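Exercise 7 asks you to align residues with tokens for two separate proteins.
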Amino acid sequence: MSLFNPLPDNTVRRLSKVIVRTIHLVGISGVFGSAMMNSFEPAYLALAIISGVVLVIMEASAGLVMFVQIRGVSLWLKLLFLLFMHRHPDASIPCLIVVIVISGFVAHAPSWIRYFSLQHWEVVHSKNDLLG
């Protein structure tokens, strides 16, 4: 692509997701570092929560089918681990490690894993795939 060709239509959306995801990684790293040092930094927690909510909204805006795909189910699973961590602070580090492992696996898994729907038992990229 030369400098004078127009940018693809999804450039702004893609760049926005990369920026929010990067902010989220900083927040999660800060939360994990705080847990490792046995301290509490509310700024990192707020950064992680706010950017996480923004990421979910950005992903869900394409369609709610995401919540039955492996990528959405992993979100629910990570939230359960974070809730467990909240109830049992002594388990913070193992819970955060599990959340990071789930995130890393799902983020880098092939699309046939990420977009596999546990409800429909097939790969579903959008609602249109379900309509036939």
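Second protein for Exercise 7:
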Amino acid sequence: MKDQEFVEYVVKVLVDNPDKVKVERRVDEMGVLITLDVAGEDMGKIIGRDGATAKALRTLLRVVGMKNNARVNLKINEPEGREAGDRPVREGGGRNNEGKEEEGGQSYPKYNSDDVDSVMNDLKGI
């Protein structure tokens, strides 16, 4: 349960509406799944620029899990009334037809935010 307490503590410090933070923990054959719900106006603070805050939180959570011999994953739920496709696209960037991020004329592969292992494997080839 330290993993759940860790996520709850960190997220409540980051957001403007700590009373709306909801953290659930579920254990199955895949490991531990921590599910996070926050107020819609706090999503940007949890995701961070280019997903940096969410990625850092997931990395720290995996360290907490390793210390307790468990595989821990974090799922961040979209607030009600908002869908994943509702995110604004920044000027000069966006998705191309192949589902890749484009920034300044370069294309980057699209990754599922929960697929950190896949990203890490791709980075080994760089």
